[in-house]
Structures are given as structure tokens and as C-alpha cells.
Design brief:
Blueprint: E1 3-5, H1 17-22, E2 32-34, H2 42-55, H3 57-65, H4 74-84, H5 87-90, E3 98-102, E4 105-109, H6 119-136, E5 141-146, H7 150-159, E6 165-172, H8 178-185, E7 192-197, H9 201-212, H10 215-220, E8 223-224, H11 231-248, E9 260-265, H12 270-281, E10 285-292, H13 297-304, E11 306-308, H14 331-338, H15 343-350, E12 358-360, H16 365-372, E13 376-380, H17 383-397, H18 403-418, E14 425-429, H19 437-444, E15 465-467, H20 471-488
Parallel strand pairs: 4-14, 5-6, 5-8, 6-7, 7-15, 9-10, 9-14, 10-13
Antiparallel strand pairs: 1-2, 3-4, 11-12
Helix pairs in contact: 2-3, 3-4, 3-11, 4-6, 6-7, 6-11, 9-20, 11-12, 17-18, 17-19
The protein binds pyridoxal-5'-phosphate.
Pyridoxal-5'-phosphate binds next to α12.
Length: 489
């Protein structure tokens, strides 16, 4: 399998999986996608059903990954999947349990990993893949990132303890929830450096961009990223769409042709883009419902065909903060497919798109295909909706959900009421309530219990450096840390 850029006018698929694993964007600014989506039939799906039941999630992950990866020996790929997806890390043998709330409503639990958010599903695999490939190339990597909460801790927990990887993670000082801070700063590893920046998330992101734009510095220190445009992260996520589909269809009569739909709390379009890939492969997914919060860039796009990047003044700080985005980085992948994989046109639409700008597909034939071919629907919810849904779901079903999952459940109830979808719905749960205690308390009058697996955070030490909003300071920390470790080894 070869990979191409969404902005290549000639559609030349020249890269292998491991070539694009560690790099981020394609040189032309596009995102990588496989030259085609491997097609699965009912027989393959039946095989996968047996595999998941008999050998477990890691075996299913290996079967799916092997369709996309041909530059890692099969036995190694299998071992990578087995190390990434263990019951020890994910709290259950199932890795992604699916529970039933109602006749037509399921929850797919993606947040039982080390940092209690769905980002662990991809990041744990990425950690194994990075370590493997860097060792094979006798190379190393310094990951530089900015986080508003979930991505940073998932990256740190996936990369810590790996000799050939350093992590430098910037976060806005005092702006993550107490649980997120305790978790992220708890890691005591000289290869992991937490930098709390006196500013907001956008300031952190700006610093990362400034540091990474110094190309000599970047190359000299082998700086890399783990952001959501990384194809390997997306591929890891395809696996749980298949696993959720398998588990939600267990009890129906013809399970291997039974269709289900997904409702996905969405920010950067990373999670739901993996659903698009699974559907394009022929997994019987009916509808993909994109659920946003007040930052409704994507709801607007799917309803009207207009995509417009928000300015920072138009980007709201909400109680589902991991969905507070001004643009949806992964949307370009879907639009490329939507336009029949027209790289020139994709480059025209996305190249140089800056804040406040956008494009309009409302009178393009593609607009009709959003729903009819690709099965997309969308909806949005507000702070008040989240609170009401958290309270109602606890009362009705005895289940406490986090605010992001509540965004999706709000939209799921709208879809069920509106009769727009006639299959069962799997709502993807993307975080545990313990990460967002204040909002939970606002909704149900008490803080969520801390699950045993996270009890250690109550009195964990904090390993974090507080710094001013200055890229030169960040560079200095990077140089000093890397130099110290070179001298030690
Ligand atoms: C990152 C995140 C999301 C949004 O996922 P995207 O891939 O950006 O669409 C939703 N919920 C939680 C809890 C997250 O951490």
C-alpha cells in the first residue's frame, strides 16, 4: 500500500506507511491518505468477528492494520498491536466495551485507557510504532506539542519510558481541569518535559509553530509532532469502529450484514474521519453523525456546504473543551474523497486558508453526496444541553457520562426523535467524567467518583516547568535537555 497527498494534482502515491509515520504534513501541505481503501466483504467481516471473539482486540487491530501496512514484517506488526492493546492498559479484556442503553442506543467505550480519553486508542499504538521504527533507523525523535488537555497527556503516557523519544509538551498555565493537570504533570521521566505557559492554548500553539518554523533547529534536534493529522492515528481508530460494529450487532439475526450508525463528538474531525474510512472499506455503517458543541464549524459545513474557519474571537471556550476548535484539521481528507480525490481542487480549497476564510460547496454536486453516498448528518449542542443530558442519562440509565459524550448523546436523541436514521446508534464515549468534575457537579450536584485506576493521582508529585510566552525559552529547554542526555549516554 502506497500513500499520496490530498493536494497532489497528479495523485502519485509514492510513500510507504513508515515513510509517512513520523513526518506530519506532506511537503505540499496536504495530508496523506492510502492510494485506495482495501475492500472488505461479508466473509472478511465474519472472519473478523471470530478473530475478535477468540483472540481479542489486538488480533483484530493486526488484521486491519496489515491491509494498510506492508513495510513492517507481519510478526512485528502483530507484536506491536499486542503491546499497544493490553487489558492492563485499558482496564478490560475487551479494550473497547460496548454497552446497551436502550433498544436502539449503544455506548462504545473508548476512554478506558491510561489517560481516560479516546486519544489513548491511537496514541498507544503510535508510541509502539514510533519506538519500533526509530530503532530500526537507529534514529531518535523529540516530540514538540501543544495541548489543551487530552492530547498532551495521551501523548506523554504513550511515549514515556522510550529511550529514543523525548516529549516537550506545552499547556496553558492553570487552564486545564485539576484532574488533567494532576495526570499530565504526574509523569516523572527525564525524557518528558511539561512546560506550563503563561497564556492560553493558542499561545502554546503559536510557540510550537514558531519553534518548528526554524528549519535548521528542527532538523538538528529531530523535532516531530503527534497531532491528529497523523495517518497512523487515524488508522488505529478504524479498528474501534469495526470492533464497535461487531459488538453492537452480536445479538441480531444476520450480524455480518446488519447496519449500525455512529454518533461522534467531534472537534478536529480525527475520530469521525476514521469512521469514514471504515465505511469506505465496506464495513456496514449506515450514518455517521457529527456532533459539535457551540463551536459548530462542522455542523455548518454538513448542513449547508459552507466551510469557514473561525477567528479566535469567534471560538468559544466551552465545557467540552476538547472540541473547542476554529478549524477542523482532518476535514481535508474527507473533502478530498468527496471531490472524487481531485488533488488540484483540494489544494485550491484548503491551500492558504486562513482564519475567517472558507469555501462553499452548496451548489456543487458533491453537496448532495455528503448524505447520500457518505452518510453524514450533523447536530450541535450547548452548555445547557450538556448539563441536561448528563442529568437525564444518569437518571434514565444510571450511567454518568462526560461533557463531550453528552454532546453526542444530545445529538443522538435529536436524531432518534427526528426519525432520520433507522438503524441502531452507537454513541462514542470519548472521555471519563472524572476528567471534567466541575461540569459533572454542575449537572448532577456532586463530583464523579475517581476510578481506582486513577486514585494514585490524588497525591502525585507535579513535574512541570512554568515559563513565559517565549519561543526562545522553549528552544533553550529543548537544547539543554537533549544535550544532557547525549552526555549521559
Ligand atoms: C479530542 C477529543 C474529541 C474530539 O476528537 P476529534 O478527533 O478532534 O474530532 C472529543 N472528545 C474528547 C474527550 C477528546 O479528547
Amino acid at each position: 500500500m502506497r500513500y499520496l497527498s490530498t493536494r497532489d494534482p497528479d495523485g502519485v502515491a509514492s510513500q510507504g506507511f513508515c515513510d509517512i509515520l513520523i513526518g506530519g504534513l506532506a511537503p505540499d501541505g496536504g495530508l496523506y491518505l492510502p492510494e485506495s481503501y482495501p475492500q472488505v466483504d461479508t466473509e472478511t467481516l465474519a472472519t473478523w468477528r471470530r478473530l475478535l471473539a477468540e483472540e481479542g482486540y489486538a488480533a483484530l487491530a493486526h488484521a486491519i492494520l496489515s491491509l494498510f501496512v506492508d513495510d513492517i514484517p507481519d510478526a512485528d506488526l502483530r507484536a506491536i498491536c499486542e503491546r499497544a492493546y493490553t487489558a492492563e492498559k485499558f482496564g478490560t479484556e475487551e479494550i473497547v466495551p460496548v454497552t446497551r442503553l436502550d433498544r436502539r442506543l449503544f455506548l462504545g467505550h473508548l476512554s478506558n485507557g491510561p489517560t481516560a480519553a479516546f486519544k489513548d486508542m491511537a496514541m498507544q499504538l503510535l508510541g509502539e510504532l514510533f519506538e519500533y521504527e526509530l530503532a530500526r533507523r537507529d534514529s531518535s525523535l523529540a516530540i514538540l506539542g501543544a495541548t489543551s488537555g487530552d492530547t498532551g497527556s495521551a501523548a506523554i503516557f504513550a511515549m514515556k519510558g522510550r529511550r529514543n523519544i523525548h516529549v516537550f509538551m506545552l499547556s496553558p498555565l492553570g487552564r486545564m481541569t485539576p484532574f488533567q493537570q494532576a495526570q499530565m504533570f504526574s509523569v516523572d521521566d527525564p525524557h518528558v518535559v511539561n512546560l506550563a505557559v503563561d497564556g492560553v492554548f493558542d499561545d502554546c500553539q503559536d510557540i510550537v509553530k514558531q519553534v518548528a518554523s526554524d528549519l535548521d533547529f528542527k532538523e538538528l534536534h529531530r523535532l516531530g509532532a503527534v497531532n491528529s493529522i497523523n495517518w497512523a492515528r487515524l488508522l488505529a481508530q478504524v479498528v474501534y469502529y469495526v470492533a464497535c460494529w461487531l459488538r453492537a450487532t452480536e445479538e441480531v439475526e444476520d450480524p455480518d450484514t446488519a447496519r449500525v450508525s455512529f454518533v461522534v463528538p467531534t472537534g478536529n474531525f480525527g475520530n469521525v474521519c476514521a469512521g469514514h474510512v471504515a465505511k469506505a472499506m465496506g464495513v456496514p455503517i449506515d450514518t455517521l453523525v457529527v456532533a459539535t458543541n457551540e463551536n459548530d464549524v462542522l455542523d455548518e459545513f454538513f448542513r449547508t456546504g459552507v466551510y469557514r474557519v473561525r477567528t479566535s474571537a469567534e471560538t468559544h471556550e466551552t465545557s467540552s473543551p476538547s472540541m473547542d476548535i476554529s478549524k477542523a484539521s482532518n476535514l481535508e481528507r474527507f473533502v478530498f474523497d468527496l471531490l472524487g480525490r481531485d488533488g488540484a481542487r483540494t489544494a485550491e480549497l484548503f491551500g492558504g486558508l486562513s482564519t475567517g476564510q472558507g469555501f462553499d460547496l452548496s451548489s456543487d454536486p458533491a453537496f448532495e453526496r455528503l448524505r447520500s453516498v457518505h452518510g453524514f448528518l450533523s447536530g450541535t449542542s450547548t452548555h445547557a444541553d450538556r448539563l441536561a443530558t448528563i442529568a437525564a442519562v444518569e437518571k434514565e440509565y444510571g450511567v454518568l457520562v462526560d461533557p463531550h459524550t453528552a454532546d453526542a448523546l444530545t445529538v443522538a436523541f435529536d436524531v432518534l426523535d427526528g426519525g432520520e436514521v433507522d438503524t441502531p446508534l452507537v454513541v462514542l464515549e470519548t472521555a471519563l467524567p472524572v476528567k471534567f468534575a466541575a461540569t459533572i457537579a454542575e449537572a448532577v450536584g456532586r463530583e464523579p467518583e475517581i476510578p481506582d485506576a486513577y486514585a494514585y493521582l490524588r497525591d502525585a508529585d507535579r513535574h512541570v516547568l512554568e515559563i513565559d510566552r517565549d519561543p526562545e525559552l522553549v528552544k533553550k529547554v529543548i537544547v539543554e535537555t537533549l544535550t544532557a542526555h547525549q552526555e549521559n549516554s
